């Protein structure tokens, strides 16, 4: 069963949320884990895709938008709105407002919440569902 880590950011800014997500993805990539980012919609995924190219000078996190076809790179971070391919189920970063499917397949799930009432309310709902499933939970308020 996965370890679930919630990160509550000090800002309600979506830009701050994307920047923090980029930092998490860089760390996961350096650990040589496969990673999938579950986004709410294509616009959110594209915004993260663009931010990953510019968030830190000299940093490179290979990534691509997943559209149901085999990824070009075996170690790229995939960004999508649906289910990831089987080989990308080590780490999930959940930017969506919904509970991910097939939770038991992941090693870690990162929930990144902005500091606004909607994000926190939906995060609390997911936290309770994870808790009911008996998952290892921790919350970090930044």
What descriptors fit this protein?
23% strand, 142 residues, 32% helix, alpha/beta, globular, Rossmann fold, seven-stranded parallel β-sheet, 7 strands
The total of beta strands comes to: 7
Give the SSE order as H and E letters.
Answer: EHEHEEEEHE
What is the subunit arrangement here?
single chain
How far is the N terminus from the C terminus?
A: 25 Å
How would you portray this structure in words?
α1 crosses α2. The longest helix is centred in the first third of the chain and has 17 residues, at 14-30. The chain has a 7-stranded parallel beta sheet, sandwiched between helices. It is of the alpha/beta class and 142 residues long. The chain has helices spanning 14-30, 42-54, 117-132, and strands at 3-8, 35-38, 63-65, 77-80, 91-94, 108-113, 136-141. It starts with a strand and ends with a strand. It has a single domain (3-141), classed as Rossmann fold (3-Layer(aba) Sandwich), CATH 3.40.50.
Provide a brief overview of the structure:
The protein has helices at 14-30, 42-54, 117-132; strands at residues 3-8, 35-38, 63-65, 77-80, 91-94, 108-113, 136-141.
Element layout with pairings:
Elements: E1 3-8, H1 14-30, E2 35-38, H2 42-54, E3 63-65, E4 77-80, E5 91-94, E6 108-113, H3 117-132, E7 136-141
């Amino acid at each position: 069963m996965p370890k679930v880590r919630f990160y509550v950011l000090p800002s309600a800014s979506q830009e701050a949320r994307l920047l923090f997500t980029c930092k998490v993805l860089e760390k996961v990539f350096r650990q040589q884990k496969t990673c999938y980012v579950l986004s709410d919609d294509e616009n959110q995924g594209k915004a993260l895709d663009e931010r990953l190219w510019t968030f830190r000078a000299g940093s490179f996190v290979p990534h691509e938008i997943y559209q149901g076809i085999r990824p070009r790179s075996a170690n790229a971070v995939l960004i999508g709105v649906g289910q990831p391919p089987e080989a990308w189920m080590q780490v999930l970063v959940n930017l969506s407002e919904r509970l991910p499917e097939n939770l038991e397949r992941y090693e870690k799930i990162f929930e990144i919440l902005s500091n606004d009432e909607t994000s926190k309310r939906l995060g609390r709902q997911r936290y309770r569902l994870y808790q009911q499933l008996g998952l290892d939970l921790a919350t970090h308020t930044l």
